Amino acid sequence: QASSAGGGSPFSRSYSKSASASSKDGLTDLAQHFNVIKTSAEQRDPIQCRVISAAFPKSEVFEQSCEHFASPLLGSADEPCDPAWPRDIDPAYVENRKHRMEESFTIARNICPQGLDHQLSVMENANDTVTALAFEALDDKLYLADSKGFVTVRKITGPAVNRFTVRQQDDRPTARSQPLGSCNMTYISILNPEYDPLLLTATAEGSVAVYRDADKRGRQRQVSSFLAVPPMWGKTSYPAVIESNAVSSQLYASGCTKPQTVHIWDLQREVCTGRMGGIDHNILKIFSASEGQPSLLVGCDSGSVLYYDLRDPRHYISISEPYDKGKLVGTALINNDVQIVCGYGNGRLKIFDIRAGALSKCKDFEGHDHVKSRMTSFASHKCGTIFATSSLHSIKVWNSEGNLLSTARPHGNFLPRSGSLQVLAFHPTRHLLSAGGADSATSIYCSYG
Q1: How far apart are CA 206 and CA 255, in angstroms?
Q2: Beta strands in 193-347 (DSSP E)
Q3: Residue 263 contacts residue 277 (beta carbons within 8 Å)
């Protein structure tokens, strides 16, 4: 009591107003007490850390910690950075490319649908299974992704332009046994086709990467990457389902540890802008309408297809009936986005109409014989007038009414191809179709000889 009353205790003196002449309340600034150098980060966002000067002992570790955490997290890079993208491009060049794309797309939409049974070219892919394909709209290039994480860029009727590997490291515990660089790419697409084309790649683990100058040998560079589906530890992981729309700059992702949720990404800002949940079954396929239309199709493992209008805050509009006799292979919008076509593993094709406010079935027919060969892949043209299906050794092209236009059987230079077809892709503005499979060969089909 005497010490407390007389101010003999260091503890009490520290809290006395008259004990310290250098501070207003008797407390000493942390940086001043330990002679820590203030940085610009401290001045920008000061942290008022005050301690009792007489009771707090000196510590070199504490001084170094204060100095470390007071420094800014991001400093200026030693090497000069690339200019911000998109690059500054001549407006006349952009207008020319836009005009060419619009003209080509209008021709593809207005011409009478024809079969694609003439094999324009066939190319080998270094004995690797082709898992994804994408055409570039104006430069006559085809991008191929394989199961070993390589991307090959080729001329449609010429040699390879570039080949590089997509090296992505997965830090999740389930993937620690995989070596660095091994990734299973399941989706590729072209962004900014009328400006500066960028290549978007996605893996089965949900990793998305964007590359610039992918068509220039040895000059490709990764400009961005992110995880489209946030991981949740301790849950079963499913293959990621990715779909992008180059016109609206949106990316839709599902699968991994959240197979019943669709994540909506803004690719320009690289932020997740929304989520669509409430789906009772795992998602297998996602289809985004062309030309930036706010329509989205979500196919589930129950065989049902959900139709969403992204302008509605509730998003969900209607759903088709479940179908448990075959796995959903693909779905797409046709006939000016008023009808939906679905393909199933047992060879069945179904066409639904959405104009009545619900998905009413218009046509149900057999596209492939489920006994001899099952349906393995599905693709539709952006113009919405034709779509294609494939089985083990044949490719069929259909018009929007469900009528068969052509049947093609892939072959090599001399002999028929031995591997099954697993992926199809249409050219965005022309009537060209590419097909790849397990035999590492990729064929391109057109409607003329």
Answers
A1: 8
A2: 198-203, 207-212, 221-227, 238-245, 250-256, 258-266, 271-276, 283-288, 295-300, 305-309, 316-319, 328-334, 339-344
A3: no
Which candidate, 429, 337, 424, 346, places its Cα nearest to that of 384? 337
Of residues 333 and 176, the one with the higher pLDDT is: 333
266: confidence class by pLDDT, cuts 50, 70, 90? very high
Give dist(CA 2, CA 331) in Å, integer. 86
Q: What predicted TM-score, i.e. pTM, was given to this entire model?
A: 0.76
Are 153 and 141 contacting, i.e. CB atoms less than 8 angstroms apart?
Answer: yes
SS3 content of the chain, % helix, strand, coil (to 5): 10, 40, 50
Average pLDDT over residues 166-188: 59
Report d(CA 272, CA 303) in Å as an integer. Answer: 28
- Please say whether the beta carbons of 271 and 226 come within 8 A: no
DSSP string, 114-140: ----EEEEEEE-TT--EEEEEE-TTT-
Closest of 403, 374, 370 to residue 387, by C-alpha:
403
Q: Any idea what DSSP says for residue 204?
A: T
Q: Which amino acid is at 399?
A: N
DSSP run (H or E) holding 189: strand 185-191
The H-or-E segment that residue 156 falls in is none
Q: Is 259 left (phi over 0), alpha (psi -120 to 50) or beta?
A: alpha
Q: For the chain, how far is it from start to end, CA to CA, in angstroms? A: 107
Reduced to 3 states, what is the DSSP secondary structure of residue 445? Answer: strand
Here the tokens at position 248 are: 């609206």
